[in-house]
Amino acid sequence: MNQRFDAVVIGGGIVGATTAYYLAKAGKRVALVEKGRINGEQSSRNWGAVRTQGRHSTEIPMMLDCLEIWRGIEAELGENVDWRQQGQMRLIYDRGMRERSEAFMPIAREFGLTTRLLTPREVADLLPHYDPRDCQGALFTPTDGNAEPEKAASAFARAAARLGATIMEFTAALSIDRWNDAVCGVETERGRLACETIVLASGVWTSRLLKPLGIKHPSLWVRGSVGRTGVLPIEMRKLVVWGKCAYRQRPDGRVNIAVAEDGFHDLMLDSFTYGLKFLPLAKRNWRNLRFSLGKPMIRSLMAEFDDFTTHRTLDPRPDWTGLARAADRFVEEYPGVGSIQYERAWAGYIDYMPDELPVIEALSEPNGLFVAAGLSGHGFGIGPIVGKTISDLIVRGRSDYDLAPFSSRRFNGG
Ligand SMILES: Cc1cc2nc3c(=O)[nH]c(=O)nc-3n(C[C@H](O)[C@H](O)[C@H](O)COP(=O)(O)OP(=O)(O)OC[C@H]3O[C@@H](n4cnc5c(N)ncnc54)[C@H](O)[C@@H]3O)c2cc1C
């Protein structure tokens, strides 16, 4: 196999699928290559929050436009992705949480967000089954929303295919070919794909594709866990709530509950390569950091994670202790549900950057290489506009946004 495309997108998560969709919509011949199944890793495993609330101010202009995409997504793709614009709520229990919530208000005002601080009574009105005993209020953004992670990226990939994109599952990109100072193709396990444009939307694997090119992408893998209950006899207005745990009621009445505050890092070789860059972040969050030394370290010592065909879909072990604690906390907040049991649970590895900002850029060396990765735990909501932005950079040669804060130069001494 030696095919030619205008662009090859590596990675079939929300970023890669939306990039392929917008490129195909612009008339480009595009291939989307995925080492496992489309939407297998982070993009199908997250909480589904689509939020402006709590975001870094540099991401908010993009996120506001992305909300417009989400509002029209079901009509545009012709598929249901369970999009609901019913808000994001951050419950306040203590002084630290109140200070962090209040600190977001000037940013909210600057960008004209609908965010406001609620009293405990207002919280109780919005969440009738919630017990507000020790709640001091909440930060609330009614125009934020949520969608079903198991559906969204797959729907974008199917829409891209309808527009003529070639979707190649179980096709790992092994390396990037370059000719002088420009890219000229992707070597995959099923042959070579010739192209002058390559997009890395490869999530946690991105540093491994960039390393042979001498480009540093210091992301660490952080494990997030989610459990799904059976149908619960409560109505939670289908918004995303961060309380003592995080939760979202699905349209079928089941509730996804997540271990909210902990950053759980499985130590591996990258922890030592990039660890120092994460010290400031670790110092700010040291109370919530947890580490584990186990199989991921052995696997990284055996170079398993350097081979893109070894782990078709990363499926890490859920943090059962954390999920049990999250269930207890949920029952504290909703005593009416009695005890709860999870019907299923899963985990996903997040590609975390030291400054919690993504890399979104057209590299100049090598020319023709675009990177959209490192979305640091909040890339599902903003993913579609990241894909559209990369498509704009390729098709129009420019973007409507200031992408300087998202350049990889911040890690590569430029
Ligand atoms: C538990 C959890 C909760 C989260 N909650 C939220 C939330 O509520 N809201 C939010 O906005 N974000 C959330 N996130 C983060 C969000 O899921 C991610 O930021 C987003 O999905 C990243 O999308 P992506 O397309 O960059 O990466 P991914 O979805 O990880 O996709 C990358 C794809 O690239 C493929 N790939 C990698 N290397 C190769 C190769 N060499 N060849 C071919 N294919 C390759 C991988 O197999 C993978 O399918 C959460 C994440 C987790 C794990």
- Helix segment count? 12
Which structural class should the secondary elements be placed in? alpha/beta
Number of domains: 2
Helix percent band? 25-40%
CATH superfamily of the largest domain: FAD/NAD(P)-binding domain
In CATH's first tier, which class of the largest domain applies? Alpha Beta
Number of strands: 22
% residues in beta strands:
25-35%
Poorly predicted runs of 5 or more residues: none
* CATH domain fold name of the largest domain: FAD/NAD(P)-binding domain
What's the layout of helices and strands?
Elements (H helix, E strand, L loop, with lengths): L1 E3 L2 E4 L3 H12 L4 E4 L8 H4 L3 E2 L9 H18 L10 E5 L2 H16 L5 E3 L1 H7 L10 E5 L3 E2 L2 H14 L3 E3 L4 E7 L2 E7 L2 E4 L3 E3 L5 H5 L9 E12 L8 E3 L3 E4 L4 E5 L4 E4 L2 H6 L4 H6 L4 E4 L2 H7 L18 H14 L8 E11 L6 E4 L6 E5 L5 H17 L19
Parallel strand pairs: 1-12, 2-3, 2-13, 3-9, 5-15, 13-22, 18-19
Antiparallel strand pairs: 4-8, 5-7, 6-7, 10-11, 11-12, 14-17, 14-18, 14-20, 15-16, 16-17, 21-22
The protein binds flavin-adenine dinucleotide.
Could you give a quick summary of the protein structure above?
With 414 residues, the chain is an alpha/beta fold. The protein contains 12 helices and 22 strands. It has 2 domains: 2-79 and 149-218 and 355-411, FAD/NAD(P)-binding domain (3-Layer(bba) Sandwich); 88-143 and 220-352, D-Amino Acid Oxidase, subunit A, domain 2 (D-Amino Acid Oxidase, Chain A, domain 2, 2-Layer Sandwich).
